Predict the 3D structure of the following.
Amino acid sequence: MTTPLQTKHGSNARGGSDRGATAVEYALIVAGVALVLVGGLQALGGVIGSVFDNQASALAAQEIPPTPTPTPTPTPTPTQTTGSVAKKGSSTISVLSGVTGAVLTGATIACEPSGSSSITWNANGSITYTAPNKSGTTVIRFTNVLNGVTRRATLTLTIA
């Protein structure tokens, strides 16, 4: 049904069209929304910018220490791996001289001429060995630890 000012084809009594009026109304609404968005973003932009500036200034004021260069861990390497001992004699052999902080552990006699012998490891990085009363070769195996690094080594002694 049509109103008295409107005809069947969407024209009003003055002979114009209603379609153009609604397009203008939509354009005005879109323009109004755009103005509100632009105004709001400009107002928030200043606040957000100042928040980032404050954070950047706070970070710049902090002193960040340089990253330390790691100190290489020395490897506990035996300084003497061979030697000689007289029969029934006692000898102190420095197996870790010059390696500060290394700890000798687990020194054992792997093989030797038959007889009575003894071995002691000392805090200064040496091993004291008392030889049996027979000639031959004695092999002493030991481990040493320095800063968590464990090394195994062999000391071969000639008993004469």
